Amino acid sequence: MSWYALWGALEIGLIYGLVALGVLISFRILRFPDLTVDGSFPLGAAVAATLIVMGWNAFAATLVATIAGALAGAITGWLNVRLKIMDLLASILMMIALYSINLRIMGRPNVPLITEPTVFSVFMSDNLPDYILRPLLILALVALVKFALDWYLGTHSGLALRATGSNPRMARAQGVATGAMVLIGLALSNALCALGGALFAQSQGVADISMGIGTIVIGLAAVIVGESLTNSRRLVFMTAAAIVGAVLYRIFVALALNADFIGLHAQDLNLITAVLVTIFLVVPLLRQRIRDRKRP
Amino acid sequence: MLIAQDLHITFNAGTPIETRALRGLSLEIPTGQFVTVIGSNGAGKSTLLNAISGEVQLDRGSLRIDDVELNRMPVWDRAGMVARVFQDPLLGTCEDLTIEENLALAANRGERRGLKRALAPQLRTECAERLAKLGLGLESRLGDRIGLLSGGQRQAVSLLMAALRPSRILLLDEHTAALDPRIAAFVLDITRRIVAERQLTTLMVTHSMQQALETGDRTIMLHQGQVVLDVSGEERRRLDVPHLLKMFERVRGETVSDDALLLG
Amino acid sequence: MKWTFPSLIARIGAKSRVHQVATAVVAAVVLASVTSPPVHAQSVAVTSIVEHPALDAIKDGVKDALAEAGYTEDKGLEWQFQTAQGNTAIATQIARKYVGDKPDVIVAIATPSAQAVVAATKSIPVVYAAVTDPVGAQLVPSFEPSGTNVTGVSDSLELERQVELIKQIVPDARKVGMVYNPGEANSVSVVEQLRSLLPGMGMTLVEASAPRTVDVGAAARSLVGKVDVIYTSTDNNVVSAYESLAKVGNDARIPLIASDTASVERGAIGALGLDYYEMGRQAGRIVIRILKGENPGEIASETSDKLALHLNAVAARKQGVTLSEELRNSAAHIIE
């Protein structure tokens, strides 16, 4: 693997780290199975790309994209809380609707950004090649987002959010308006995913309608790989672990792309990635079992 | 002061499993009074508590706490006035949160939850002090996840949480029923202490007639969704379980056959 | 670095000693695998967005063209092929990997892969293939020599000739129906062009969208009674599910005209289509020019000129059309 590919894995991994944080909030903290992310990730890309092509400042476009994601999440929450639609179903409905909405926003299925200014353009310099600069910039942003999230979850509002997911009946008895918390939590989660989508489009040079497919799977894989890294339930570590998990997953893909020396082919890429992730999760468990059996 | 007037609640109305849980129940609890509630299964005890806390809506009747009409208020809006300890120790606390995080939640019961830090140092000291009074050593385990505690310990913490901030009424829903006798006695003891200390208006549902007579100032008995017995003061002090039973039979013309009620 | 690593892991609460070791091993493997690429005589890296008979044919065409010109793996050619399994994130990682490997030429098949590669490098020569609208996709500024590192072969079809074919097969056609995936850039581009082209030739376009392959049949059914003929492009969804389209055409006696020759066997009356293998060879010829030293920025983008007319007389009968002698004579292949 070249350094270039490794930096690429880091860059994409950090962007998906934002998605992992979003999935952490919805799946783990709120206990809300939210498939909206398959729609809000490309929503962020669609909004940002369309605005940039229209001439907007890239930062403003990215901000609006993030807000659009929040709105999408809030609608899913509203479908669940107000219209009493089951959580998974509400998120699927929103995900389906967003496909058409995203197409409408872009006006076509594919909006290229290769020749457009992006949030990265401002920072381009001759001192550092852009394939190193971009991941470093994204790292700074993701770190900022992580610390902001950690801070929020430590506030009264954040605690109420956690209680809503952990024990909604008890939360209500403590005066938490759980319906409102669900909306806030989903808005936050999908805002992060949309931000990821906006950055991804600007990083890879195009917003494409199909780029959302499988986002939830990648997000969950990242969260789970992250959880296997640390036993601690402290939020500060869980958020870090989710981001690390996302990066690790992309590194696994990069490693898998280099596996042709074993005689594996291009078609085997998905299989190889799955195997690598599984090994990472299971080997420590197996060795522990062997150790236990050896004990007298 | 809690005033319940002519409460009617029917579940599954119009179906073969229709249940008329409350049938015109009326009750007045003056501020500071500790009332125990007994009754056989299906008498309406839990429904009464759920009606007060807001988890169940009234079909007819009115419920007021200090002139505030509770009728359409959702659970979370009433929480400032109504504190509750559930029967199931797992229900009253958030398993994934630590002891101090649970207490921090309870410390803001009924208040706006903004962006200030939840685990402020002031709160931590207050919690440590209060926990120490329980005598369970929990004040040194503030950072432990509450899921690690035993049922009795969690119930004790739930009680503490309910009393952490003032309430207009404290609802205790058979909160010792799921605990083994020694722990149950311990929790009941804490209950008496805390209620006396804070002069809390309390409504305690219990499965045991003995416990009902020995705790608090007044005992009411529910049967088929109505209050059929209401004793307090001197009359109550002179009562024992067999006498209580006779009174019930006289009022209702029926025999009480619920074993748990008798043997408790 | 290793003596601080375990303590760092321990502080964040990693599970067991075994797990710490596993983490350290993974990290070591990753770092050890980061090397400079080995040196070959020439290297060509090829990527496509999905595995697809048409796209695979392009890859084969490139490889064969190179072999015939003397570039084979025995003679020191390094050849790489990866597909992105339909996933844009993987397409991007493949692009990054290739750029890091510093090949002599990258061949990118289909629009999403081409965009990922072009966004990733401004120096390594890129030859795109099977991109219908390379200008709209921002791969090149125009079909003239780009002046950048990008050139290639576009599979855009001259739509006038396609419409002529429609008129030859169904002379009285007034309403032309089109089933397509609104999420595929190439198809949307064709639809837009037809919408403006058809009125000038006395016809109108009626659209039916099929966002997923399973929607193709339903989309076709929605056109029954509203159109005189159904035309389809090289839309991936339609090509994958052509049988469901054929069923509707046969049941409702609506003539079907496709854009790729393989669909003619599957139920279309006819298609004036590209041979994707030939397109691959065409791209391969551009790759050879670059390997020999030409600057990609000086090579104009090409379209494929090798069109072949395939006809299916059986389908024609089922769908209520008689094929004229003239048409039969100009066909390269007829199914009876």
**What name does the CATH topology of the largest domain in chain C carry?**
Rossmann fold
Rg of Cα set of chain C: 24 Å
- Secondary-structure content class of chain A: mainly alpha
- The proportion of residues forming helix of chain C, as a percent range, comes to 40-55%
Strand percentage of chain A: under 5%
**Helix vs. strand class of chain C:** alpha/beta
Tell me briefly what this model is.
The complex is a heterotrimer of chains A (296), B (264) and C (336). Chain A is an all-alpha fold.
Characterization of this structure:
The complex is a heterotrimer of chains A (296), B (264) and C (336). Chain A has 296 residues and is mainly α. Helices cover 74% and strands 2% of the residues of chain A. In chain A, strands 1-2 form a two-stranded antiparallel ribbon. The mean pLDDT of chain A is 90. Chain B has 264 residues and is of the alpha/beta class. Chain B is 36% helix and 23% strand. A 6-stranded mixed beta sheet of chain B has the order 6-7-8-3-9-10, sandwiched between helices. In chain B, strand 4 and strand 5 form a beta hairpin. In chain B, helix 3 (99-107) runs parallel beside helix 5 (151-164) and helix 5 runs parallel beside helix 6. The model of chain B has no long low-confidence stretch (mean pLDDT 87). Chain C is of the alpha/beta class and 336 residues long. Chain C has 2 domains: 43-156 and 275-298, Response regulator (Rossmann fold, 3-Layer(aba) Sandwich); 159-274 and 307-335, Response regulator (Rossmann fold). Chain C contains 14 helices and 13 strands. In chain C, helix 4 packs across helix 5 and helix 8 packs parallel to helix 10 (242-252). The chains are: A mainly alpha (296), B alpha/beta (264), C alpha/beta (336). Chains in contact: A-B, A-C. The interface between A and C is large, with 62 and 58 residues.
Mind sketching the topology for me?
The complex is a heterotrimer of chains A (296), B (264) and C (336).
Chain A: H1 3-29, H2 37-53, H3 58-81, H4 87-106, E1 110-112, H5 130-153, H6 156-166, H7 168-173, H8 178-204, E2 206-208, H9 215-229, H10 235-257, H11 269-294
Antiparallel strand pairs in A: 1-2
Helix pairs in contact in A: 1-5, 1-8, 1-9, 1-10, 2-3, 2-4, 2-8, 3-4, 3-8, 5-10, 6-8, 9-10, 10-11
Chain B: E1 2-11, E2 19-29, E3 34-38, H1 45-53, E4 60-65, E5 68-69, H2 75-78, E6 82-85, H3 99-107, H4 121-134, H5 151-164, E7 169-173, H6 181-198, E8 202-205, H7 209-214, E9 218-223, E10 226-232, H8 233-237, H9 241-252, H10 259-263
Helix pairs in contact in B: 3-5, 5-6
Chain C: H1 4-11, H2 17-33, E1 42-48, H3 53-68, E2 77-83, H4 88-101, E3 105-109, H5 111-120, E4 126-129, E5 150-154, H6 159-169, E6 175-180, H7 185-197, E7 204-209, H8 216-223, E8 229-231, H9 236-240, H10 242-252, E9 256-260, H11 262-265, E10 270-274, H12 276-291, E11 302-303, E12 307-312, H13 313-318, H14 325-329, E13 333-335
Parallel strand pairs in C: 1-2, 1-3, 3-4, 4-5, 5-11, 6-7, 6-8, 8-9, 9-10, 12-13
Antiparallel strand pairs in C: 10-12
Helix pairs in contact in C: 1-2, 3-12, 4-5, 8-10
